């Protein structure tokens, strides 16, 4: 989140700077660090012209402010097009402004945004698709099926909507206002060539708009994850900082072993044990060997569990993390052997054991050999307990079947 004190300077309708009032009641010049409150007309000039300069932010004292010309028109993607004689074609080339506001606010705003020269796009949800204010927009874009406050301030939903309608300007109001302080959202919007504005006064958005910026670089694309509980998408970095708990609904997201290691253990403290254990196919199950190879190629993992040693706040622990991505975490002979070796070595080195379970149960392709692992691991844990060493089992989604009947419980 971006936190900083804001000072504002307002531009009049003709572009002249409105001076601030000092404590003495006299006009004082704008501070160099002052932010600028844009008029909609100025926002349109900078969006529609070939050159955004002179930008109001570059002339905060008003001494070098000049009006921009609109001879050349720039589309939302920054492509220049020649002046158009046909008015209908000209409307199609107008820069698009995405209005993120509830119906009452949007109804007041849309006429002013359109009069400034923008093609107005209104965001909505399917359960509000018949709202009257949508008729005043030149285009509409759906954020989802059902309205929630969280949806209207979700970075992924708003960025997707802006890309869908080709918006070069995003106006944040009402429930979408928190996005004005989210650095990752602002960085991604800037990388897409979009400018984000929030109202100078939430109660009176037409008084002026403040450009929202961030100094942080945009996160690489393709790093979104969807919460299975609420259906909203979030970037990986924000989820990792929140320990993979959904910031909206509080639901838990499944974590891979790599994510679990990075989240729990001290940096660079993990050392893997028994990484490669020879596979067996005791039943000669048709196609089993090929499926194992396919799972390794798909996940980059050797088996459905990773074991090793690491430290938590400097305390050395033996740790096992099951992988639901690999054969749904099913327990075959190799999984059982790796967990048993982990516990036996921890007993020898007098280390506590922590195991994160995530399994669909015994692996049916190995039959009774898979079920035998239940007893083998349980015996190893019994010896570990007799040595007076702690064992902690952390149940994660999913934990079922033979794992539940043995070392998970």
List the helices and strands and how they pair.
Elements: E1 8-11, E2 17-18, E3 20-21, E4 27-28, E5 35-38, H1 40-48, E6 73-74, E7 80-81, H2 87-92, E8 96-100, H3 103-115, E9 119-125, E10 139-144, H4 149-152, H5 155-165, E11 167-172, H6 183-191, E12 195-199, E13 209-212, E14 224-226, E15 233-235, H7 236-241, H8 257-264, E16 271-273, H9 288-299, E17 305-312, E18 315-322, H10 333-348, E19 353-359, H11 367-386, E20 391-399, H12 401-404
Parallel strand pairs: 1-5, 8-9, 8-11, 9-10, 11-12, 18-19, 19-20
Antiparallel strand pairs: 1-2, 3-4, 5-13, 6-7, 12-13, 14-15, 16-17, 17-18
Question: How would you describe the overall organization of this protein?
Answer:
The chain is of the alpha/beta class and 409 residues long. The chain folds into 2 domains: 8-218, Rossmann fold (3-Layer(aba) Sandwich), CATH 3.40.50; 255-404, Alpha-Beta Complex (2-enoyl-CoA Hydratase, Chain A, domain 1), CATH 3.90.226.10. The protein is 29% helix and 22% strand. It has helices at residues 40-48, 87-92, 103-115, 149-152, 155-165, 183-191, 236-241, 257-264, 288-299, 333-348, 367-386, 401-404, and strands at 8-11, 17-18, 20-21, 27-28, 35-38, 73-74, 80-81, 96-100, 119-125, 139-144, 167-172, 195-199, 209-212, 224-226, 233-235, 271-273, 305-312, 315-322, 353-359, 391-399. The chain has a 9-stranded mixed sheet. Strands 16-17-18-19-20 form a 5-stranded mixed sheet, sandwiched between helices. The protein has a two-stranded antiparallel sheet with strand order 3-4. The longest helix is centred in the C-terminal third of the chain and has 20 residues, at 367-386. The protein is elongated and about 80 Å long. The two termini are 41 Å apart. Mean pLDDT is 82; it is low at 1-8, 21-34, 50-54, 56-66 and 68-91.
